[in-house]
Specification:
With 73 residues, the protein is α+β, with helices and mostly antiparallel strands. Helices cover 19% and strands 56% of the residues. It is globular and about 35 Å long.
Length: 73
């Protein structure tokens, strides 16, 4: 899987992230993650669809995100 975009932030002392990933067949998935104990990320798939649909959803998340961003790629 190839990561297309990722946003990492902090909200109420919780480190979180969301990312767009594309598999070898071209399917795009939006995943949500929380940083757990011992610096291990726990990722969960949230939505799957076409590139444009998932990119729009990703940008909507960014527009409504209230956390303090640490990294955006």
């Amino acid at each position: 899987m190839k990561t297309l975009a990722i946003t990492i932030g902090v909200f109420r002392n919780q480190v979180y992230a969301y990312r767009l990933r594309q598999d070898e067949e071209g399917r795009v998935r939006l995943e949500l993650g929380l940083k757990g104990s011992e610096r291990v990320w726990e990722w969960r798939p949230w939505k799957e669809g076409g590139l444009e649909q998932m990119r729009t959803l990703y940008q909507t998340l960014q527009a409504h995100d209230r956390g303090r961003w640490l990294k955006v790629e």
